[in-house]
Write the C-alpha cells for this entry.
Amino acid sequence: MSSIENNNQVIEKTRSFLTRFGVQKGARIGIGLSGGADSTGLTFCLAELREEWDFHLVCCYLDHGIRPEKENNRDKEFIEQYCRRLHVEVCIGKIEPGIIEARCREEKRSIEEAAREERYSFYSRIRDDMKLDYIAVGHTNDDLMETVIMRFFQGSGVEGLMGIPPRRDRIIRPLIRCTREEVTGFLRLRGESWREDSSNSENRYLRNKVRNEMIPLVEKVFPGYRRSLNTLVKKMTASAELTEREMASVLPWEKEGDAIRVDRDAFIKAPEAILLHTLYRMMNSLRSGTSYRIPYHFFNSALRYGEGDEHRVVLRGYGVVFRRRGENLFLESDVVLKRKKGYFIVVDFGSSYLVSDNVKMSADLGMGKPQRGDWLYVKDIAPPLIARSRRSGDAIRLRSGRKSIKKLFNEWGIPEVLRSDIPVVEDRTGIVAVLGEPYGGRNRVRERDSKRKLTEKEEFLVFTIENG
C-alpha cells in the first residue's frame, strides 16, 4: 500500500465508522489520549475531520500512578503540547502512586483490569462534567485480534468472542477497522510523533505476552488469521444478537427499585444459553462499569437451581447477590467485594457504599455549620479517600492522643466477629475516621485544629453510617 493510500485508508475508515454508527455532526467528543500511537492517531484523525463534522474535541489523560514519575511527566508534557498545537482542550487526571496496586492486592485482581476500570471511570466523570456526547478510544483491529485470542484461551463464550464492540453506549472506537501498522504509517506520513509506553515491552502483562510472543507465532502458522478472526467476530455477534432477542421473550427481567426481578419458574425452565447470557448481561448492568471478568464456574449454582431448591441466596460474589423472595428471584448490587480479609473501597465525595448486608456509609460534602461532629475540613484531606477493614497496627490521632483501633473496639465492646465490618477510613496521610455507630460503638474522626474556625464558604466532609 502506498503512503497516500495509507493516509486515505485511515481517514476513510474513520469517516465510514462515524457514518455507520450514527455519530452526529456537531457532536462533543472526548478522546482517551495516552500519548501512544493509537490514541495519538485517533486524535489527529478526528482533528482533521473536525471542520467537516463540526466536532468539539476534548482530550482526556489519566496518570494511573503505576509507571515511573519521570515517564509520566514526559507523557503529560507531550500531551499538553500536542493538544495545544491541534487547538484541542485537554483534561488531565492523576491517581496517587500505589493506589491501584493496593486495590489489586486487596481484591486479587490484575493491574490491567484495575487500571482500565479507573481510566473509564475518569472518562465517565469528564463526559458528565463537560456534557460530552461520546468518549472515543483508540482501539485498533490489532487490539480486537489480541482480545479474541485471549478470550478464546480463557474459555469465553459467545459474548467474549465478539471481541471489542465498535460502539457500546457512548464509548466509540473509530479506528477498530484500522491496523496498528496503518495508524503508525498515517502518523509518519504526516510527520507526527508519539510516545512509547515502556511497559509495552514488559511481558508481565497478559496482553503484552499475547502481542509480543503469541501473535507472531500465530501469524507464522496461520498467515490469514486476521481475516478468520474478523469473520469469527461477525458470527459471534450474530449469535449474540439472536440470543438477545430470545432472552426478551423467554426470560423477561423487570426493574424493581435498585434490583432486577425475574420470575422463578421462568428462570428454572430457561435454556442454559439464555441463563448464562442474561446473568452476564444483568450483572454488568448492576456493577457500574466494574471490569472483573466473571468465570463460568461462578454461575454453576444458578445454572443448577431447580424446583426443589428453597435456599434464599442463589448466587453471591463479584459485587452482586442473587436471591429468592417469594416466587421471584432478585439480582441486586452487593457493592462491596467481600474477601476473607475484608473489603477495600475508593470513596468518592457524595457517594454511598454498602459495607455489609445492611449497613451503608457515605461521605457527604457540606458548607456552613455541620449538624453533627463526624466531619473534617475538606482541605485537610489528602485524596484518595479509602474505606477498608481494620488491619493490625491501625491507629487514629484523636484529641486525647494516638489510639489503636483495637483499643477503641475493646472500649466499645465490639464482638470479634463484627470488627472486620467496621469501616476504617484513611487518606494518604493516615486514618481519618473510624465509623462504629451501627455496631454498638461510636464514630470517631481525626483530631481537627481547635483554633481554626469553619467559615460559611469552606467545605467540610461529614461521615454517616446507618442500618438500611
User: Anything to note?
Assistant: The domain at 254-333 is CATH 3.30.465 (Uridine Diphospho-n-acetylenolpyruvylglucosamine Reductase; domain 3). The longest strand covers residues 359-367. The radius of gyration is 25 Å. The mean pLDDT is 85.
